[in-house]
Amino acid sequence: MYYRKFIEFLKEHGIYDEEVVKYYREHWELFDYLDVEKRINMGTNYIIRNGQLEEMRVVVPIMNNDITVLINVHEYIHVLTNYNKINHRAKIKTKDHEVLPIFYEKVYVKENPTEELMEYHNLLNECIDDTPEEQYVLALDISDKLMEDYDNQSIEQVNRKVKKLVFKDTIHKFINK
Q1: Do the beta carbons of residue 2 and residue 63 sit within 8 Å?
Q2: Contact predicate 102/94, CB 8 Å
Q3: Nearest to residue 54, comparing CAs of 26, 23, 21, 85?
Q4: What are phi and psi of 141, to 5 degrees?
Q5: Across-strand partners of 55?
Q6: Cβ–Cβ contacts within 10 Å for residue 84, how many?
Q7: Strand order across the beta sheet in which 43-49 lies
Q8: Among 47, 96, 163, 174, which residue is least crowded by beta carbons within 10 Å?
């Protein structure tokens, strides 16, 4: 049921790609979200050899509630945005690499506003507020701006806006040094 919900969300928002979904499933390691010790390894791991992205391995929870779907949406976006970089020289962790995953998290939460999911998402945002890593702070800020006028745009349209907002943010920081 929840896997179907995950796929429907991807299709509804124009981020479903059959080839990428197949890759995602072939390279995921599933675990029970209730196993707190396994959560430490959760995420997308990039295997880079000789400067080329060779493979992505995804450690995600089995989808059995909205929180686990949300986590899978986030990691799927990482795979989607980096899939075309496989077997190429690529810079993976760019300044804006968390923007789209966090943005689509916000979209998912907006469309599925259960108390449990909103509580979890707020906790994530609080954790980001407590981290000094610029990429997460930037992702929260830009994803909030994107949500202001989000109207089910294509991923290409959203990505163009992300690039503009990241550029604006970079210029602003440079000028104010």
Answers
A1: yes
A2: no
A3: 85
A4: -60, -50
A5: 47
A6: 11
A7: 28-31, 52-61, 43-49
A8: 174
- Position of tokens 């010790």? 37
Produce one character per residue of 108-131: b if its CB has 16 or more CB atoms within 10 Å, e if not: bbeeeeeeebeebbeebbeebeee
Cα 146 from chain centre: 14
In angstroms, the CA 171 to CA 17 distance is: 34
Instruction: Give strand ranges (E) for the chain.
Output: 28-31, 43-49, 52-61
The residue among 62, 64, 58, 63 whose CA lies nearest residue 77 is: 58
pLDDT in tens, the chain (177 residues): 999 999 999 999 889 999 999 999 999 999 999 999 999 999 999 999 998 999 999 999 999 999 999 999 999 999 999 999 999 987 777 777 888 899 999 999 999 999 999 999 988 888 776 666 777 777 777 788 777 776 666 667 776 776 676 656 554 444 444
Q: Which of 75, 120, 82 is nearest to 102 (CA)?
A: 75
Task: Please report which residue ranges of 130-154 form alpha helices under DSSP H.
Answer: 134-148
